[in-house]
Specification:
single chain; alpha/beta; TIM Barrel; eight-stranded parallel beta barrel; 10 helices; 40% helix; binds SN-glycerol-1-phosphate
């Protein structure tokens, strides 16, 4: 059943914080999946995102199958490329990089993805994706050849997010970039949240509970954490309860 987006909306309705653990297929070996996922299962995480910027072809599907073998949590593809699409997952964020002006990442890759998507039962969730400046050059910036949005241009960020909502995006993702030195500032999260009616996801550079709480307090409906858990799995232990 295609119920991931409904589940996200329901959790917002009941005021539940939502946490997604991001696994990059390029950085997680199959034999490490089981012990890692066992810890994820014991944490407050609600979703497992799978994706990355530099993923070799054909590694995503075996990874998703291994995750599914050890967890009942929904697996949501967060693909860096068309080759990462697999029917083994529950849903996919159909990301449009609205912070940039590279047509490939606004519409081109999406058209390329259609033949693959037609062969799947994936729940496809249109998602506006805004890369926000964090002080270092991130993989998203390098691979897509698009600059991040300046963090002092809050009005432009808000207007871009609103344009995404009006274009029909069902989710909006504020991204500082994987391994960012600074997460998305709370002023930006709250300004965007104030204007949007669709769910707001925030990720990039969140390394501890304080930053996580800050993002939720500012208005994030879901927070995504990847690098901090790759570097310190004990962080998951801290996430056993909110
Ligand atoms: C990256 O937002 C995600 O796309 C998570 O970022 O790896 O820095 O947690 P981190």
């Amino acid at each position: 059943m295609k119920n991931v987006l409904n589940n996200i909306l329901h959790n917002i309705f009941i005021n539940k914080r939502q946490l997604a653990v991001l696994i990059d297929p390029d950085k997680m070996s199959l034999e490490n999946v089981k012990p890692f996922i066992k810890k994820v299962n014991r944490s407050v995480a609600n979703y497992i995102f799978v994706g990355g910027s530099n993923v070799a072809e054909d590694v995503t599907e075996p990874l998703v199958l291994e995750i599914k073998a050890h967890s009942k949590l929904p697996v949501i593809l967060f693909p860096g490329d068309v080759s990462q699409i697999t029917d083994a997952a529950n849903a996919m964020l159909f990301l449009s990089l609205m912070s940039g002006r590279n047509p490939d990442y606004l519409i081109g890759k999406h058209v390329e993805a259609i033949p693959r998507l037609k062969e799947t039962e994936l729940e496809v969730i249109p998602t506006g994706y805004l890369l926000i400046e964090n002080g270092i050059k991130t993989s998203v910036q390098k691979i897509t050849d698009t600059p991040p949005m300046a963090k002092d241009k809050v009005d432009t960020i808000v207007n871009t997010a609103l344009a995404g909502e009006l274009l029909g995006m069902r989710l909006m993702y504020l991204e500082a970039g994987s391994g960012a030195s600074q997460p998305v500032p709370h002023e930006i999260i709250s300004a965007v949240k104030h204007e949007l009616t669709i769910p707001l996801i925030v990720g990039g550079g969140i390394k501890n509970k304080i930053q996580l709480d800050d993002a939720f307090r500012a208005g994030a409906n879901m927070v995504v954490i990847g690098t901090a858990l790759e570097e310190n799995e004990d962080f998951l232990h801290e996430l056993k309860r909110w």
